Amino acid sequence: MVGPAGEQAGIVKIEDALRLARDAELDLVEVAPMARPPVVKMMDYGKFKYENAQKARENRRNQTNTVIKEMKLRPKIDNHDYETKKGHVVRFLKAGDKVKITIMFRGREQSRPELGFNLLKRLADDVDEFGFVESSPKQDGRNMLMVLGPHKKKTEAKADVQAERDRRAAAREADAEAERTELADRRAKAAAEPATKKKRGPADNLDPDIDLG
């Protein structure tokens, strides 16, 4: 039997072990049933299960689910397409994902591997703020591959995205509150102003004692 603090109590009869556990207001838990003799431990089983659940939850929260995205380019890609695809790569890296860049060669392009290498180097330099070259460019048949890794972990990227969403929501709420306050001020000001005087007409200048009949 093992005591609540991990101390060894030696071989104890089951009746004595149960009595000791009851006296200490603890549970007697079998922790190694296949051992000879079996091993039991005195503990607060409810607290033990709760702490284990908390640890498992924390481990899942800290676990990084790595996703590898892929982006394909041609060696002679035009600037507009390049900027579009670079934008996708930046978005993936900011989300905490790895990105596999594939340069696809066709026909005579296969004799110009430097085109692919230079393009990959250009892309790596352009997205240096968000990621790094995890796997250097290498030839793979008709293709050339490179893997970019994000500077931020997945959990950090998610936290940043959530913080930005919270900031935008707070800004929208502040703007709405300012509009409500301005509207209330205008209404209060309008209510405090005196009523507009009636304009005088020709009949208002007549002597009320004059008989018009």
Automatic annotation (TrEMBL):
GO cellular component, one term: cytosol
NCBIfam families named in the record: infC (TIGR00168)
Compositionally biased region (Basic and acidic residues): 156-190
A Pfam family that the UniProt record links to this protein: IF3_N
Function: IF-3 binds to the 30S ribosomal subunit and shifts the equilibrium between 70S ribosomes and their 50S and 30S subunits in favor of the free subunits, thus enhancing the availability of 30S subunits on which protein synthesis initiation begins.
InterPro entries named among the record's database cross-references: T_IF-3_C_sf, T_IF-3_N_sf, Translation_initiation_fac3_CS, Translation_initiation_fac_3, Translation_initiation_fac_3_C, Translation_initiation_fac_3_N
Ranges for domain Translation initiation factor 3 C-terminal: 67-150
GO MF: ribosome binding; translation initiation factor activity
Keyword terms: Cytoplasm, Initiation factor, Protein biosynthesis
Region spans: Disordered: 149-213
Family named by the database record: Belongs to the IF-3 family.
Name of the protein: Translation initiation factor IF-3
Subunit structure: Monomer.
GO BP terms: ribosome disassembly
Record's subcellular location: Cytoplasm
